[in-house]
Every structure is written in structure tokens, then in C-alpha cells.
Design a protein that fits this description.
The protein is of the alpha/beta class. Helices cover about 40% and strands about 20% of the residues. It is built from 11 helices and 9 strands. The protein has a 7-stranded mixed beta sheet, with helices on both faces. A two-stranded antiparallel sheet has the order 1-2. A hairpin with an 8-residue loop joins strand 8 and strand 9. Helix 2 crosses helix 3 and helix 8 packs parallel to helix 10. It starts with a strand and ends with a helix.
Length: about 270
Amino acid sequence: MYIVFHHTNGKIKRQGKYLESEFKRLGIIEPSMTEFASLMNHQLGINLSAQQISAFDFYEKELLEWNEKFNLTAIRDKEGIRVKHFLDSLTCIKEFKTIVPNRLIDIGTGAGFPGIPLKLLFPAMQLTLVESVGKKAGFCKNVVEKLELDNVEVLTLRAEEIGQSIKYREKYDWAVARAVAALPILLEFLLPLVRIGGGALAQKGESAHAEAQMAEKACQILGGKLQHISNLTLPGVAEEHFLVVYTKVAVTPQKYPRRTGVPAKTPL
């Protein structure tokens, strides 16, 4: 369920479904957010509804406001947020064609990326956000509560703890992560959480291919299989971006993930 917010006499009111022209007339969203919607359509073929545009607008405003108090993200300008956070997060949908994301877990989500933007696109999806830093997890909870996003759980825990919990282990269609750790480490966080036939997706920079090669042993041990590495181009961003995609083909041995800190200290 998406809730649209606007101010009337100093009070926030919730509204139902509006056409985009009505959003502009009421001043609910900035005109530049319609440019963001056009960008999504051009880059990813996504047609955002008026409610989705409003939700992204609210998310952006909350991120800018919280960033003044806490260091949630180094990106602090609107254009950067829309391209390097929102658009970058939504590039994951390119890999969702064969495996539908009914249940998705986002490891090391930070300020909610890529999990919350994906939830705004797939409102029926069950989403688990994992973030060990309390202030960042608190921000995610704030956004989820204010947008009244259903079936979202925010966990202030380490990935190693989640992976050994029967409640979460091998329960997800997709486990995703962005800029969390090198792939030999990251796969030990992601693959134990994915059901057989599900997928693990890592958003990576220029080191993607080298990391994937280093992670071959970890992938085999943990029951994964590298499917492909997709190259992405973000408008106005010089750095290379890649999606590294794995399929879960076998049950992960019970001893993985190892106890907190061990995967980073002694990668497979």
C-alpha cells in the first residue's frame, strides 16, 4: 500500500490515488520528480505510477533530512540520490525475469538500498532488510513506517547471525547486496539465505570480474553457480557498474556462514 502525503494548513493528510497532473497541481511532488520518472522509463522501461513517484519523492526528502544529522550516505544531492541510489537499485530488475522476487533479503542495506526502491516497485514482495548499524536501520524503519509498506522486516543484526537462523535460512527467492564486501566473503552471507533455484545478486564496481574469479571456490562450497556478469551504464556516472548473478543449485552446508567476523577474516 502506498500513501501519498501533502500539507494542508500545516497538517499532513493522506490521499488516495491521484493522476500525475493532480500531483503537480497540489504541489505534492517536485516537478523534477517527473523527470526522474522519465529517466526510469528511458533506462529501465519502467512506468512509475503517481503513487510510486510520490513515494520516491518522500524517500528522497527523508534521506536528505536525516543525512544532516547522521552520516547515512556520502551522496547528498538530489541528482546523485536519484541516479546513484534509486536508479542503481532498480537496475536489479533486469535479473528478475526468470526468478520472481516474491521474497527478497537485502544484506547490509544501509539507508535501504537496493531493498526499499525494489519494494516500491514490487509492493506485494516480502522484504527483509538487514543492517547492523543502528542509526541506518532506524532510518529504514522510519521510511517503512511512514510509507506504510506492508511485509517489510528490518533487522539490526549481522549477516552471519541471519544465515544461521532457521527462520531465514534458505527461505528467499533473492538475496541481494550492494557494496558490502568482496565476493568471496559476500557469497557466504548471501547463498545460505537463498532457496534452491533462487538467486544471489551482488552490485559491484570495476572489480566485479576479478572478484568473481576469486570467489569460484566459495561459490562451489556454498552451493552456488555463477550465471553471468552484466555491465551497466548510469547516466552521468563514469564508474563502471556490474550485476554479478548466481543461482543456488545445492543446499549450503550447515556450518556456513561461519561465526561473526570469520568470513571477513578468513574468506573461503
